[in-house]
Amino acid sequence: MGKFRLRSKSKYLLIFISILILVITLQSNEILFYPSNLKIIKGENKDLNISFPFSVDDNTEKGIVDTIYNEGSNGLNKSLTLNGVDKGQTNLELKLLGLIPIKNYNVNVVDRPMVVPGGNAIGVRMNTKGVLVVAVTDIIDTSGNRVSPARNAGLKVGDSIIEINGEKIVSSEQVVDILNESKDKEVELLVLRNKGEFKTLSSPIKCLQDNAYRLGIWVRDKTSGIGTMTFYHEESDTFGALGHGITDVDTGKLLNVEKGLIMNAKISEVEQGQKGTPGEIRGVFYKTDDVLGEIEINTDFGIFGSLIDNNGEIKNSEKIPIGFKEEVEIGKAHIYTTLDGEEVGKYDIEIIKLENQQESSQKSMTIEITDEDLLKKTGGIVQGMSGSPIIQNGKLIGAVTHVFVNEPTKGYGLYIEWMLDNCDRP
Question: Which band of pLDDT confidence, cut at 50, 70 and 90, is reported for residue 28?
Fold first, then answer.
């Protein structure tokens, strides 16, 4: 009986030690923490460190990637060099002890995009697709009854009304006119909700207050503001700006674009940010015929469209390469932004934290303003700086997106890769 207990204890101790060794091994192997999708730039190399007991099965297609194994100093570590030969996709498979599949890596060889970094202040004017419902309310009818035709028809805050009785809606004034012409006759509404459309019926009610016919909704059809250009990509004739989407101030919903423009803006005033109160850049748009570009889409990762730039100031500027997310490092970087008039300034920052994001997501990195001149002018990151390009090691790696309200010297940045992935262009 005593020998049996001893053997059982030894067995469990051996299992525990094996698990402990495996955990330590997993933590010490960098390759396990590489993203499943590896980007390699055509004509460049990427080194992968591999430690025992792991190995890589080379399933790469010749002509896309060349693989070179370099023995480590102790024989247990190997450096695998992947050379991007030509554009295309191939695969690597990570195995434990050469037998057990652990992880697959999709290797994508791509050209490194070249872009013109922004930093210039822009005025943004955007018309929504249809009209956005910002409130659903009750109406007191001429009999003194409290009713809500919109609520009964299933309308919600954040919906967009894009047609009434088959007529395309472009303004809030148009909605008022159609309802008063229809009087108490039932109208058919085409509604956009979460990228899906549906139809519903509703009958306007004559309002006791002003004898006008209403559905019990407040709507908005346009928005405007100041932001910062992030990049211009010549091959696709695409600009990207803001680093985040334009949302309605009342609903918090991302606005659907029907028509939008960006224009050159001149910064006239900067309100400093303080703990608990975000600062703001204030500016004025140039005359409306000095259009810089047309907004085509509004996404969670910025606004995008075609650059017009008739004077050629941006299109003829110097291009730099982008840096992919795995190339971004904790440490020094700088941003371009405009704080006075039209002059783009260069300001030092520190990247203090990076997020290992496998898919498009906001808040990719935490940044801190270290430039004394910028801190003196703004107190840190302020509204209107969103979209300011982040440059590190001569590459455009991201864009400023949000400020920490209680710590305005710090904020978030977005990987430039996510902006390019969401611009809906090649």
Answer: very low
The shares of helix, strand and coil residues in the chain, as percent rounded to the nearest 5, are 15, 50, 35
**CATH number of 172's domain:** 2.30.42.10
**DSSP letters spanning 76-107:** SEEEEEEEE-SSEEEEEEEEETTTEEEEEEEE
Region at 143 (left for phi over 0; alpha for psi -120 to 50; beta for the rest): alpha
Residues 71 and 49: their CA atoms lie apart, in Å, by: 10
CATH (domain of 57): 2.60.40.10
Claim to verify: residue 72 and residue 100 sit in the same structural domain: yes
Distances (CA, A) of 309 to 140, 239, 284, 291: 51, 11, 18, 7
Stretch (H or E) spanning 180: helix 172-182
Q: Structure tokens of 395?
A: 């590459």
Cα distances from 415 to residues 157, 350, 396, in angstroms, run 32, 15, 9
Q: How many CB atoms are located within 10 Å of the residue 393 CB? A: 13
Largest alpha-carbon pair distance within the chain? 97
pLDDT at 395: 96
Instruction: Give me the mean pLDDT over the 410-422 stretch.
Output: 92
Cα–Cα separations (whole angstroms), residue 76 to 51, 82, 97, 124: 6, 19, 12, 57
Kindly list the catalytic residues.
244, 371, 386
The last residue of one of the domains, among 215, 236, 260, is: 215
Reference 423, options 236, 229, 262, 257; nearest CA is: 236
Q: Which of 78-82, 202-206, 254-258 has the highest mean pLDDT?
A: 202-206
Determine the Cα–Cα distance for residues 110 and 276; give it in Å rounded to an integer: 44
Helix, strand or coil, per DSSP, at residue 153: coil
Which percentage of the chain shows pLDDT scores above 70?
86
- What's CA 60's distance to the chain center, in Å? 32
Range of the domain at 174: 138-215
306 CB-contact burial (10 Å; exposed 0-12 / middle 13-18 / buried 19+):
middle
Helices and strands in the chain: count of H runs, count of E runs: 5, 30
Between the two ends of the chain, the Cα-to-Cα distance in Å is 73
What is the count of structural domains for the chain? 3
